[in-house]
Structure formats: C-alpha cells, structure tokens
Amino acid sequence: MGAGEDRWEAELRALREELKELRAEQREMAKAIGDLVTTFRTLAAHLGIAAEPYARKQDRDGRELPGFG
Q1: What's the Cα-to-Cα distance from 32 to each of 19, 27, 60, rounded to whole Å?
Q2: Best CA proximity match to 50, nearest among 65, 37, 34
Q3: Does position 43 have pLDDT exceeding 80, yes or no?
Q4: 9: Cβ–Cβ under 8 A, 6 or more apart, which residues?
Q5: Distance from the Cα of residue 9 to its chain's centroid
Q6: Which helix (H) or strand (E) holds 65?
Q7: Measured between alpha carbons, how far is 31 from 11 in angstroms, rounded to an integer?
Q8: Can you give the pLDDT at residue 28?
Q9: Does the pLDDT at position 69 exceed 60?
Q10: What does the alpha-carbon distance between residue 30 and residue 6 come to, in Å, rounded to a whole number?
C-alpha cells in the first residue's frame, strides 16, 4: 500500500465516523421534535385552544379560512 492509499483510507474512516455522528444527531433531533409536538398538543388541549380537531372554516364570502372547527 502506498502513502496515497493510506491517506484515502484514513479519510474514508473519518467520513464514516462523521456520518455516524450526524445520523445519531438526526435521531436525537427527531426525538426532540416529537417531544415538542407532544408538549404542544398537551398545552393546546390544556388551554382549550385545540379541543376540536383542526378544520378549515369559511367566511361570509365563502372563502376558506384556516382555524379550528
């Protein structure tokens, strides 16, 4: 093996390790987002702003408006 091949193998190992770390961070972020969604739903239900499922409303002109039904 030459010095060039050793360098490429070291670079590949470093990239694989970085990819492994990024994937672990992504899993942590996905869990944190799930926790935030759960917290939001609990808080919204507690405050009474999300007692009904989300549904589009229509105004007097027949246009759809976002809001809770």
Answers
A1: 20, 9, 41
A2: 37
A3: yes
A4: none
A5: 33
A6: strand 64-65
A7: 30
A8: 97
A9: no
A10: 36
